[in-house]
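=== RUN LOG ===
request id: a7f3
mode: sequence -> structure
chains: 1
length: 312
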Amino acid sequence: MSAHSITEPSGRSKWVAGTLVITYALITMIPLAWIMLTGFKSPADAISYPPKVVFEPTLEGYVNLFTTRTRQTDDFLAANPPENWADEIVRQYDMVIVGPSKFGERFFNSVIIGFGSTFLSIFLGTLAAYAFSRFKIPLADDLLFFILSTRMMPPIAVAIPIFLMYRNLGLSDTHLGMILLYTAVNISLAVWLLKGFIDEIPREYEEAALIDGYTRFQAFYKVVLPQAATGIASTAIFCLIFAWNEYAFAVLLTSATAQTAPPFIPTIIGVGGLDWPAVAAGATIFLLPVMIFTILLRKHLLRGITFGAVRK
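=== RESULT ===
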């Protein structure tokens, strides 16, 4: 009889598990692939039925996304020949490019608000998590539950009070207002996740540093933070995903100056209706920063998800 391990899966089990994981990954990536392909379709191909899988690619969606166009007369078009390939694309609709669109500005707002709120959430969440993990705080469990309870409310439940408060404080349609709001929402997640990571770091490391003459802050900065880097990275990904994709508060509290990409992309209007290739192109570009950020920190994310699963 061959030896059988109860902890090591068999070759057949690995094959079945691998097949299921690959199949699930491919199925979940179909919508993303379809969005990316739609960005290279013409408006007619984008709404064709049955849907076209094989089509002639064009950059019309990206041109419409990044430019503002206006219709002109035949005499004007004849007197002003196309200056570049983008002009040639819009000339087929008797239009000319008159300037850039607002997508670049809205995308930049998303970068400022998303990464700004993520940094602030991680900064405050790390300090709070360290305090809850290392010091005896009166009613610590009650405070932690109160912090977590802010995450339980649906956004619509506090939408009107926040709108009125922001209007009175002059924070409506400002970068600072959105950063503070997203930080307030994300900080509960940051505190609870980071507290679990810091709890796993042995106190003996800090005690040894204190004996060597380090101050409490130096022990936190030079000993605890490097050990908690995995947890900080994984928490930052979750905080960024929320701030990057948030739609309800962005629609309610922004309109021009601080409007982010999520409420702007659905308003892209083309010839005769919604410009689906431009919408798909905007969605594709909007996915890239979070995708790149997650890929760069993927090792920390995997470690962060499994950290603390087994305690010694």
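=== NOTES ===
Residues 103-134 form the longest helix (32 residues).
The longest strand covers residues 95-100.
=== END ===
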